[in-house]
Design a protein that fits this description.
With 496 residues, the chain is α+β, with helices and mostly antiparallel strands. It folds into two domains: 273 residues, Butyryl-CoA Dehydrogenase, subunit A, domain 2; 179 residues, Butyryl-CoA Dehydrogenase, subunit A, domain 3 (Up-down Bundle), CATH 1.20.140.10. It has 16 helices and 14 strands. The strands form four sheets. A six-stranded mixed β-sheet has the order 2-1-10-11-7-6, with no helix packed on it. A hairpin with a 2-residue loop joins strand 1 and strand 2. Helix 5 packs antiparallel against helix 7. The termini are far apart. The relative contact order is 0.10. Pfam families: HpaB, HpaB_N. Keywords: FAD, Flavoprotein, Oxidoreductase. GO terms for molecular function: oxidoreductase activity, acting on the CH-CH group of donors. This is 4-hydroxybutyryl-CoA dehydratase.
Length: 496
């Protein structure tokens, strides 16, 4: 089949899956008034792949000469990463800062198990690498959308998976081994787009110990598998949402669902990790390495939108020349371009594993980029809300603006600078409201890892030996360990 049309993608979702949203079982996720928002957003992957203008960027011929999504190909060079980065930029610009989720996250998990599975095979004589490649071909040939099931619900965070007191199912685990596969139970949460995907790629979210080996588990599972239940995240909007009041939330529903496994059977050929506990942390670590490119690229595109909205609100309010506004816009522009530059630098200085031919963004630069973006987001929110004004919180709805009885009054009194249509100003106000919602604030801090996780990674990855060697040389302190950079430098000041 190779590349699906958007219509074929939508039809593929009518498969009897068990999905709940707002307290009700959803008989058809393709027609549900809220889930349709996620459906249409996901479908943009298929719209763009069919567009001749983008096929050379977004698709690649496989070993059979058939076009498949480039997102499903392993990235083996710096040029591959740069191309993938351009793909994510296109996805994000088309979809108002949030790339279509059809293959956005799970592709990075697929690369992670591609790297780690041969290591497990080498130690234990398993055939996980063969399973991973068969799964990759299955995804390619059927052009499937798939979600990444990484985060377990965790229960008591102070306890390891096997130490949980209330029950043993806070992490997805094996409850029974059979000759032809395993039975799994547990739950994953924050699983973006899962109710509108064809498959979910499950992987451990943390390092494990031997006592936790039942939880050291990675596999691919179809969303309509028997025993699988998906409970949608609470939508930001309600039925009948319009794009005037909610230009972002009415177009994008990430649907970070909770996915519950109630004794789900996983056949052997879909297993990529089954109890080899010492490799669980490696899978999680490698996923984070690959996903940094995705995360930091779309965030730079989201900031284009954010900073543009701030600049337009300054224009529309007639305050673009005010010194404090100019300072804020300057800061926002620097913030936007710094995230873009750091994200690209991580790709330009990409890293690899000694036992794999795949490459991924430089982890140190990538973690700095993620921390910088997330740590400064609330400051950016403060600036754009200050520029836009209190109307962001109090603006009447589109029903009032387009009501013949009240439109003339609102048109007169909610106008801004002369020459700017009132409707344009109000549309921008609504955009700012969507962009600076509490949902966006929380998402930015916690998506792709918390601030503390970034700091921990940066501390571990930073080259303190190099920093110390520089300082010892300047202070004339003997460096007994030596350093390849500073040991070779000429003496300074010179003896002349």
């Amino acid at each position: 089949m190779a590349l699906k049309t958007p219509q074929e993608y939508i039809e593929s979702l009518k498969d009897g899956r068990v999905v709940y949203c707002n307290g009700e079982r959803v008989p058809d996720v393709t027609t549900h008034p809220i889930l349709k928002i996620c459906r249409n957003w996901m479908a943009m992957d298929y719209v763009l792949n069919q567009d001749p203008r983008y096929q050379d960027l977004l698709t690649e011929k496989d070993q059979d000469g058939e076009r498949v999504s480039f997102a499903l190909m392993p990235q083996r060079s710096r040029d591959d990463l740069l191309r993938l980065r351009e793909m994510v930029k296109l996805w994000a610009r088309v979809c108002f800062g949030k790339p279509s989720g059809a293959k956005f996250v799970a592709k990075d998990g697929l690369n992670a198990v591609t790297v780690v599975s041969p290591r497990i095979d080498k130690k234990y004589g398993t055939n996980y690498a063969e399973n991973v490649e068969a799964y990759r071909r299955h995804l390619q040939k059927n052009d499937l959308s798939f979600a990444m099931g990484l985060t377990d619900v965790k229960g008591d965070r102070s306890l390891r998976p096997s130490q949980q007191k209330q029950h043993q199912d806070f992490y997805v685990r094996i409850v029974e081994e059979r000759k032809d596969g395993v039975i799994v139970r547990g739950a994953k949460t924050h699983i973006s787009q899962a109710p509108l995907c064809n498959e979910i790629l499950i992987a451990p979210c943390r390092a494990m110990r031997e006592d936790d080996k039942a939880y050291a588990l990675a596999f691919g599972v179809p969303v309509n598998a028997k025993g699988l239940t998906l409970i949608s995240a609470e939508p930001e909007v309600s039925e009948g949402v319009n794009l005037f009041d909610h230009p972002i939330a009415g177009s994008i529903f990430i649907n970070d669902a909770t996915v519950i496994f109630d004794d789900v059977f996983i056949p052997n050929e879909r297993l990529f990790l089954k109890g080899e506990w010492e490799f669980a942390g490696e899978v999680a670590y490698m996923f984070a390495n690959f996903h940094r490119l995705s995360a930091e690229t779309y965030k730079a595109m989201e900031l284009e939108l954010f900073t543009g909205a701030a600049a337009l609100m300054a224009d529309y309010n007639g305050i673009e020349k005010a010194p404090h506004v100019r300072d804020k816009l300057t800061w926002l522009a620097m913030y936007t371009e710094a995230v873009e530059t750091l994200g690209r630098a991580a790709v330009e200085h990409c890293s690899s594993e000694k036992d794999s031919d795949l490459v991924y963004p430089n982890p140190l630069i990538a973690n700095i980029c993620k921390f910088y973006f997330a740590d400064n987001w609330h400051q950016a929110t403060k600036y754009i809300q200050d520029i836009a004004g209190g109307i962001v919180a109090t603006c009447p709805s589109s029903k009032d603006y387009f009501n013949p009885e009240t439109q003339a009054m609102l048109e007169k009194y909610l106008g801004g600078k002369a020459g700017v249509p009132t409707e344009d100003r109000l549309r921008m106000v609504k955009l700012v409201r969507d962009l600076t919602s509490s949902y966006e604030d929380v998402l930015t801090i916690h998506a792709e890892g918390s601030l503390e996780a970034q700091k921990l990674s940066i501390l571990q990855l930073a080259d303190f030996d190099r920093y110390k060697a520089a300082a010892k040389r300047a202070a004339r302190v003997e460096n007994k360990q030596g350093h390849p950079i500073f040991d070779e430098l000429p003496a300074f000041p010179p003896s002349l």
